[in-house]
């Protein structure tokens, strides 16, 4: 029996980091785990099941984008090095100033990569996004054209490129679709909060653009499994990887098999909430394209008041991280459309939640209710 790997998770209290820590903990996969985050567990909206996996002696509060913190983050009491480093950190909020992403995403990744290379870490997994691809009629494969369409995407791609230049870094890049699942506070959460408001207002929920706009998804359960399997695959010598055909840096899309579209989401949300859903006509969508700021502001003005009212009526005095507030960057009529076959063929990964469904979305809402986030 080989010794289990020692694992360092940066941004370990973020949405993916906490689930990765939980997966490792529940399955007894690691000999040692350290969770690093700049936020304290008490302030991270952690559900009770994460306490053991993410808090206590496993947790270290530190800002990994600060160089002076790196020694403390990486040093272990026994003087050994970590086997796997997962970078789940970086700025995940939309519509921030470029400097914020430069420092907290790009700067963070490069600082960690240099340190990992210096210490000979066996596998460094960088989490990136499918928003780096140039949308095309067919789903993007890992070597397809790149043209990032969100600020997060722009700086994630720069991080990918900078990391690839670091001599001696054992790098794997994972590009994610929209991640959803219990306690999710982004993307799917926004749509669910909006639907809750439209249900209360007894009005139809209408999406911009068309039902065919691709908004590919992946369940958090499969994301954590994929991250773990990829690290194991890499340290086992990267079987089935062909540098000359696939490139020097193993890169994998992590996206379910459902080819999720706005239309599919609208159908599911309509069923879950019992509301009418539809799409704005060509005219309004064309107007929105030219005036996206004002359209988004109008929607936000329309829904934020009623949402606050719903929370108040439900007696929720300490609102959770959920909001129907819409981010303009997420409202672009740009496809997030990815081909995930490489992960399945090269690593032998199989998705346990291959398609987003009414049941999986209801599970998300149940998780909100459990924590008293949901009106």
From TrEMBL:
SUPFAM superfamilies given in the database record: NAD(P)-binding Rossmann-fold domains
Domain NAD-dependent epimerase/dehydratase: start-end pairs: 7-238
Pfam families: Epimerase
Classification via InterPro entries: Epimerase_deHydtase (IPR001509), Lipid_A_modif_metabolic_enz (IPR050177), NAD(P)-bd_dom_sf (IPR036291)
Source superkingdom: Eukaryota
Gene3D superfamilies, A to Z: NAD(P)-binding Rossmann-like Domain
Protein species of origin: Cercophora newfieldiana
Protein name listed in UniProt: NAD-dependent epimerase/dehydratase domain-containing protein
């Amino acid at each position: 029996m080989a010794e289990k790997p020692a694992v360092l998770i940066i941004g370990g209290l973020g949405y993916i980091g906490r689930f990765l820590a939980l997966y490792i903990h529940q399955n007894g996969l690691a000999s040692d785990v350290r969770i690093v985050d700049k936020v304290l567990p008490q302030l991270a909206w952690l559900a009770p099941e994460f306490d053991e996996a993410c808090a206590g002696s496993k947790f270290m509060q530190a800002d990994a984008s600060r160089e002076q913190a790196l020694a403390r983050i990486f040093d272990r009491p026994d003087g050994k090095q970590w086997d796997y480093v997962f970078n789940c950190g970086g700025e995940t909020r939309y519509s921030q100033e470029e400097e914020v992403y430069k420092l907290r995403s790009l700067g963070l990744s490069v600082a960690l990569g240099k340190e990992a290379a210096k210490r000979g870490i066996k596998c460094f997994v960088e989490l990136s996004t499918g928003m780096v691809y140039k949308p095309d009629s067919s789903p993007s494969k890992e070597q397809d054209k790149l043209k990032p369409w969100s600020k997060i995407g722009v700086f994630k791609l720069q991080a990918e490129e900078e990391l690839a230049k670091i001599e001696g870094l054992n790098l794997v890049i994972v590009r994610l679709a929209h991640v959803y699942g219990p306690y999710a506070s982004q993307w799917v959460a926004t749509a669910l909060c909006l639907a809750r408001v439209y249900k209360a207002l007894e009005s139809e929920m209408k999406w911009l653009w068309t039902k065919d706009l691709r908004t590919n998804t992946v369940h958090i359960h499969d994301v954590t499994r994929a991250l773990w399997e990829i690290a194991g695959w890499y340290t086992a010598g990267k079987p089935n990887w062909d540098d000359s055909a696939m490139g020097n840096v193993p890169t994998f899309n992590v996206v379910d098999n459902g080819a999720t579209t706005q239309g599919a989401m609208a159908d599911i949300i309509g069923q879950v909430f019992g509301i009418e859903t539809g799409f704005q006509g060509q005219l309004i969508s064309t107007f929105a394209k030219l005036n996206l700021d004002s359209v988004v502001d109008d929607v936000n003005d329309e829904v934020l008041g009623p949402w606050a009212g719903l929370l108040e009526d439900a007696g929720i005095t300490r609102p959770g991280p959920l909001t129907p507030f819409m981010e303009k960057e997420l409202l672009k009529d740009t496809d997030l459309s990815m081909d995930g076959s490489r992960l399945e063929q090269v690593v032998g990964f199989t998705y346990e939640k291959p398609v987003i469904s009414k049941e999986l979305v209801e599970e998300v809402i149940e998780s909100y209710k459990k924590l008293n986030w949901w009106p």
